[in-house]
Amino acid sequence: MTTIRTTILLAVAAIAALAVPSVAQERGGGAPKGAAAAAPERQVGKIDTLRRIRESGVLTIGVRETSVPFSYLDAQKQPQGYSVDLCLRVADVLKSELKLPRLDVKFVPVSSSNRIPALLDGKIDLECGSTTNTRDRQKEVAFAYTTFVAGIKMLAKKSSGINSVEDLRGKHVVVTKGTTSEKMLKTLNDERVLKISIIESKDHGDSFKAVEDGRAVAFPMDDVLLYGLISKAKNPDDFAVVGKYLSVEPYAIMLRRDEPQFEKLVNRALIDLFQSGEIRRLYAKWFNTKELTVPLNQYLKEAFQAPNTYPAWP
Asked: Exposed/middle/buried for 314, CB within 10 Å: 0-12, 13-18, 19+?
């Protein structure tokens, strides 16, 4: 795979519909023609992503702000994480395949609630965060091969006495709006008549803060994200990830549907990583650190050996 020089541009573009900034990153040599192209039109189903990238020399990637260690902004507000690294490898393949002298990568922060609209509206070309591949989402978007498999558990203070879903009865629980965890908690609340007061937040950082401040007793979310949040906490020993697994959550890069050639190139970049064994080095970089240790589970080992796009279950 071609290695491409990467530098961070200082420009920040305002994305009105997302109400968040974007960060541009250069990848390659001289400036392409049309690099300062106008914002994409809202033409769902009519966007030719490969053509647009070829003509503009720009790949726009949606990233998260607090999905540690998958996709987050560091102290300098620059995107970092496992998913970000994977998408930069995709950018390498696109630059090579499209024979571009230079490919600029523009990062646009997105949230759980606006990531799919941002993709469908053409504001981003790929979403590289911690998004679960689900059957419902497959009706709107496409997913590349699975790159991580998590499971939903709960984050709570060790002093709270919360150990299971039943312990949430009659209490305040926070969820991140637009996530599979939000949907699952609301279903459990109705089915078991738990009488939970559900607090909705805009991102995982805010959800964690609700538990930290005592406004909520628990935060259900994919276990690896919860461990990541704890690792960044002021007092990590105050928190624990508790309960049985409530689901299996396969993560994948999200892209628009009905673009087989673009999807093929995205998946080719991932297959190269899987077959070369480079994926395990990237995994160790983000999941085998002093702050965070997440062993490679059997589901993910199988996904690396036999690439798939299986959705979450149940």
From this structure: exposed
Tokens for 239?
A: 């928190």
Would you say 271 and 90 are in contact if contact means Cβ atoms under 8 Å apart? Answer: no
Mean pLDDT (whole number) for 25-49: 50
Q: Taking a C-beta distance cutoff of 8 angstroms, is the pair 216, 160 a contact? A: no
Around 229, how many Cα atoms within 13 Å sit in the side-chain half-sphere?
Answer: 29
| Helix pair angle (49-56, 260-276), 10° resolution | 80
Tokens of 47: 């966007």
How far are the Cα atoms of 8, 104, 115, 290 from residue 11, in angstroms, in the given order? 9, 12, 22, 33
**Structure-token match 């959800």, residue found:** 207
Pairing of strands 248-256, 141-157: antiparallel
Query: Tens digit of pLDDT for each residue in 119-132?
Result: 999 999 999 999 99
Contacts (Cβ under 8 Å, ≥6 apart) of 100: 28, 32, 53, 54, 57, 94
Helix, strand or coil, per DSSP, at residue 265: helix
- Write the DSSP assignment of 152-207 as a string of letters: EEEEEEGGG---SGGGGTTSEEEEETTSHHHHHHHHHHHHTT---EEEEESSHHHH
Residues 233, 154: Cα–Cα separation, whole Å:
16
Q: Model pTM greater than 0.70?
A: yes
Give the Cα separation of 219 and 208 in Å (integer).
7
pLDDT at 314: 81
**DSSP 3-state assignment of 142?**
strand
